[in-house]
Design a protein that fits this description.
homodimer; 216 residues; alpha/beta; Rossmann fold; globular; P-loop_NTPase (chains A, B); EC 2.7.1.25 (chains A, B); kinase (chains A, B)
């Protein structure tokens, strides 16, 4: 770190705003609510409902899911040819790419309640995201809805395409969904009925409240 | 969108928390402050100083730069082999990667003042980031410090390595830095003296205040 005879450089560089200060400003604790489950299980709906419930309590959340990420899918905003990746790493010139797990981790570090809504079918991948975060800051929510229900809903028509063989490797059809072994919250049918989004969001908010996430 | 006879699904899904609501909660306007300039020009120092100044005013900011992103550099958190990328896109199963520009855009959408500190030497790349954001929400700050000054500082020892040929394509040595043509803020020497971080942060904050970013 250069000082160039300027003590301010040292001071400022060693005192970035810390997470705890942002959390105090927001009166909440940064974390990731990771909603996993089959396509059509209601992940996005829960994410919206949870975001609204938190907003009504004055808490800042942000939803990461296909809907607000899709715009980036077909853009090539790489800052350099792939061949220069190694150079980029060393010089810090630019721009590696981040996974959703890494982005969610940054949002939590910023103090937000980051609601990630992704099928995320593989246990090891979810666990890798969990491992990025400080202890207890990763809240895994399992939308444990029957495949038949999800396929009957088929909100994007993807099950139909998968059954017709037009999509390969579709979770639940010809690719496995690995249920969580130790998720924080499991949402499922009650007496054969799907809980309302409001009820499910309430269950998550209760957990967060009890665990102290909604105050700093 | 599936409704499954449940009107709540429709309601919630069509009513995610909007940016304007998050901004109202925070009493600020989400935006990106993109600090560009040579290695050693003081980008990270300004980012820290600006973050502290905003925090002292009760404003929520978050710094994206090499320091808080480097942890992700050597991790492989891809959710699937590259060969499955196309399938991933179609099914939304998981996890494409986002560039820093895209991540900064998400933070701005979340209502934060996102401070991105990157050399970002190419004009077209900065302009691509600008184009992601709504009008006037991209504040380009050019750290216009002389190469000689930056090289004398050489805080990470990278100029030395570049001069010795041990790093190829290093900005300012054997790769160009393209100065902004229409940046919002330009910071430079005054009477041959580097302004303090506090002075430079003040200049950015004044701009933001005048443009209405610090209230909702």
């Amino acid at each position: 770190m250069s000082t160039v005879g300027n003590p301010a450089n040292i001071f400022w560089h060693e005192n970035p705003v810390r997470k705890v200060e942002r959390e105090k400003l927001l009166n909440q604790q940064g974390c990731v609510v990771w909603i996993t489950g089959l396509s059509g299980s209601g992940k996005s709906t829960l994410a919206c409902s949870l975001g609204r419930e938190l907003q009504s309590r004055g808490k800042l959340s942000y939803v990461l899911d296909g809907d607000n990420l899709r715009h980036g899918l077909n853009k090539n905003l790489g800052f350099s040819p792939e061949s220069r990746t190694e150079n980029i790493r060393r010089t810090g010139k630019c721009i590696h790419k981040l996974s959703i797990g890494e982005v969610a981790n940054l949002f939590a570090d910023a103090g937000l309640i980051c609601i990630a809504s992704l099928i995320s079918p593989y246990r090891k991948d979810r666990d890798a995201c969990r491992a990025l975060l400080p202890d207890k800051k990763f809240i895994e929510v399992f939308m444990n809805m029957p495949l038949q229900l999800c396929e009957d809903r088929d909100p994007k028509g993807l099950y139909k395409l998968a059954r017709e063989g037009k999509i390969k490797g579709f979770t639940g059809i010809d690719d496995p969904y690995e249920p969580p072994l130790n998720c924080e919250i499991e949402l499922q049918l009650k007496d054969g009925v799907v809980p309302t989004p409001h009820e499910m969001a309430g269950q998550v908010v209760s957990y967060m409240e009890n665990e102290g996430f909604l105050e700093a």
